[in-house]
Design goal:
heterodimer; A: mainly alpha; two-stranded antiparallel sheet; 21 helices; about 35% helix; globular; B: alpha+beta; 4 helices; about 40% strand
């Protein structure tokens, strides 16, 4: 009998012994998160199977992108994330800052093994968001950002502290200070009117003006200017080959084309400086079903977002479009095993880094909107419904998350089952989606959330203000676009999306007041 | 049954692109109840001709009396979108009426409407409604309404059971309607509600109501 009791006591104490840590986990929310995240399998995103149908075909499907293979991708070395330092306008750089930077040792700041909780991943994601993937001078270089003329020529936004937030100094060792380009933050950071930074917003980096300054001040040869422009935008199969024609016009015309792209738009690789895309707003991107203005990348889950980040950060330079590769590779050269020294293509983010980046982007929230609801905006809300805006810009996301075909694109029958198609064109300029490597023939119906901190507007950033959208004068050929205007014209009609044009002045004002509250 | 099939042919002509297409384009004898002709071959043409003759004799007076006309008033519909009632019309439509309040079992009302003429006040929205997500007019150019039975619902008031076909979906709907008669002029007015999702008109929406109120007057 005694023995039996003792046994029961033993059972009780041993159960208690094991229960205490479990109770501890349950009681501590941090530990709870750790338990949850320890078992998160970081997805392997670049599999041949997953990549095959992830992107939409090109508007000319014969030239749809053929990305690198799973084997090629995972043979690329993973990126090492060093500590970065802010870049100051020369007039604001603290005394001795440059010399101090050159005395710093390299410091690796991301250790994936320490990422345990969702918060850890989001924090790491922010670090990666700001981290430049290029130190070869893909857009600008040391001599540019340390030159006062660079800031005046580009009308570069800077913070009240004099920081130019679109590039960073990367210290890879003592005396090894490089200017880092091509961070996510470069295109998706906005210096607000009050000088604060809004990460993830439609950026206001005047990237193409900056690149034009770089090429001019470096006295780049005509061949070099043509070569890099071709790598960025070449798409010789598209109707009329507008980029080929631009190259043929020589260095001066090409540089003028770069200068014509306003801040808030950016001729990213695969797009165009002739049809430049508006820099996308990433705040709220978690709810979007397609990525890119043409809806190139499907966004069905976090893996798709990770794939998009990997591809978008320059890996698409390695794509083949038919037999065409933007940087002149052949299939044999690509797969030869020799490294390819082109910005952003010789290494890759690890899957854990991409996961962290995606988690960070998903975590972005809008700042508090200063435009509060009023009697006028409430009237605008009714007008918004009466005018049928809700059909495409459906609350609460203010997009129906669909793709609308551009003029001249016939929706293939099989697309209706595969994608979310709103089969009416609103008649906006079709250049971006019909004449670029990233063009799908569609435009993504954009969300109207956050309009108050965004601009310029429309997919090609051709209108500076919302008021311009409702100005019927923009439909005329003698209109001077208030945003992007091609370098070789004085006037140009900004056609399409002809809604709200017939409203009277007061109703337009009310509608805009409502839109600014979103 | 036979009458209605035939009348449909008169009303819709060859243009209808729905399950009726199969009916109207089939040989005439396919309209008869199954079994009558199931053993017929090319060798028994004469009995078939007799039946056809009887059929024509029976049906012709009715055909002649059921006149197809285009009403002045458009079909009206209302739907709530983001809290606002959107009013729409379809003005291109026609109806064939053979209605006698004293002979409800022999009465019929047949209508067809062309959704290409849909109007909601916003042209692009109209185009969208004509498209694949809604009426898909390229594939389904007509909406049809065909009475099955009537019953009285008080003085000058009736309830009709109709087959409503939109796109490739046919469903029964109950439509209460009134008949106002002044001399020879007769005015029918009916109002009913449908669930647009039942007919494949668009998809579930957070802002667009499923219910559509339809008013028909002729």
């Amino acid at each position: 009998m005694k023995t039996k009791h003792r046994f029961n006591y033993l059972q009780f104490w041993s159960l208690l012994f094991f229960a205490i840590p479990i109770l501890g986990f349950v009681a501590n929310p941090k530990l709870d998160q750790i338990v949850k995240f320890i078992y998160v399998d970081i997805p392997r995103i670049w599999t041949d199977e997953a990549i095959k149908d992830w992107e939409l075909p090109n508007s000319n499907p014969e030239f749809s992108a053929q990305p690198v293979s799973e084997e090629f991708y995972y043979n690329l070395p993973e990126r090492v994330i060093y500590k970065t330092y802010p870049v100051y306008h020369p007039d604001h750089e603290p005394e001795g800052y440059w010399e101090w930077l050159n005395q710093q040792e390299a410091e690796i700041v991301l250790d994936e093994s320490k990422l345990l909780t969702e918060e850890d991943y989001i924090k790491a994601g922010e670090l990666l968001f700001d981290y430049p993937i290029d130190t070869l001078g893909a857009v600008i270089n040391i001599q540019h950002v340390r030159n006062r003329d660079f800031y005046t020529a580009t009308d570069m936004p800077i913070t009240p502290e004099g920081i130019m937030p679109f590039a960073q100094w990367v210290v890879a060792g003592k005396g090894k200070v490089y200017l880092g380009n091509l961070s996510c933050a470069m295109c998706h950071t906005r210096v607000m009117d009050d000088g604060s930074l809004l990460k993830g917003a439609q950026g206001n980096w005047p990237g193409d003006k900056a690149f034009a300054f770089a090429m001019e001040s470096d006295d780049a040869s005509e061949k070099a200017v043509q070569g890099v422009t071709n790598a960025l935008f070449g798409s010789p199969w598209v109707e009329g080959d507008p980029h080929g024609k631009l190259l043929a016009r020589g260095k001066e015309a090409i540089i003028e084309a770069y200068k014509a792209v306003p801040e808030g738009a950016f001729g990213r690789q695969g797009t165009s400086i002739l049809f430049p895309p508006q820099a996308p707003n990433l705040i709220g991107v978690k709810d979007r079903k397609y990525l890119d203005h043409g809806g190139l990348g499907q966004h069905r889950n976090i893996e798709d977002m990770m794939r998009y980040i990997a591809m978008n950060q320059a890996l698409d330079f390695l794509n083949f479009y038919g037999d065409y590769n933007p940087i002149g590779l052949t299939i044999e050269r690509l797969n030869s095993g020799k490294p390819i020294f082109f910005p952003g293509t010789h290494d890759r983010h690890s899957d854990a880094q991409l996961y962290a980046l995606a988690k960070y982007v998903y975590s972005l929230t809008p700042p508090e909107n200063p435009n509060i609801s009023s009697a006028i905006s409430e009237r605008g809300k009714i007008i918004f419904a009466e005018q049928g805006c809700v059909t495409c810009h459906t609350p609460p996301l203010f997009t129906n998350n669909k793709l609308t075909p551009a003029d001249g694109f016939e929706v293939p029958e099989e697309h209706y089952d595969k994608y979310d198609i709103f089969d009416i064109s609103v008649g906006t300029d079709h250049g971006y989606t019909m004449k670029t490597r990233r063009g799908t023939g569609y435009y993504k119906i954009p969300s109207l959330l956050g309009l108050w901190y965004r601009g310029p507007f429309l997919h090609d950033a051709s209108l500076a203000k919302l008021e311009d959208l409702f100005d019927a004068a923009r439909l005329e050929d003698d209109y001077v676009p208030t945003g992007f205007k091609p370098h070789d014209v004085k006037t140009k009609a900004v056609k399409g999306h002809e809604f709200g044009m017939d409203l009277n002045k007061e109703d337009k004002k009310a509608l805009i007041a409502y839109l600014m509250t979103l | 049954m036979i009458f209605r099939k035939n009348d449909l042919e008169i009303t819709f002509g060859q243009g209808i692109d729905s399950s009726y297409v199969g009916v109207t384009r089939k040989s005439f004898y396919h309209y008869f109840p199954s079994g009558i002709y199931k053993n017929h071959t090319k060798n028994n043409v004469i009995p078939r001709m007799k039946v056809l003759l009887w059929f024509c004799l029976l049906i012709c007076p009715i055909c002649l009396s059921a006149q197809t006309f285009k009403p002045e008033n458009p079909i009206q519909f209302k739907i709530k979108n983001a809290g606002i009632t959107v009013d729409g019309t379809i003005s291109d439509w026609e109806v064939a009426v053979e209605f006698d309040p004293k002979k409800l079992t022999q009465s019929s009302i047949l209508g067809s409407a062309n959704p290409a003429g849909i109007q909601t006040g916003i042209k692009l929205r109209d185009k969208h409604l004509q498209g694949r997500e809604y009426f898909y007019i390229q594939k389904f150019p007509l909406i049809s309404l065909k009475s099955k039975s009537f019953r009285s619902n008080g003085k000058n008031s009736f309830i009709g059971i109709f087959e409503l076909q939109i796109r490739d979906v046919m469903k029964e709907v109950e439509i209460p309607f009134t008949l106002a008669q002044t001399g020879k002029n007769r005015k029918f007015k009916g109002e009913f509600v449908i669930d647009r999702l039942d007919y494949g008109l668009g998809e579930k929406s957070l802002v667009l109501s499923d219910e559509v109120r339809v008013v028909v007057e002729f």
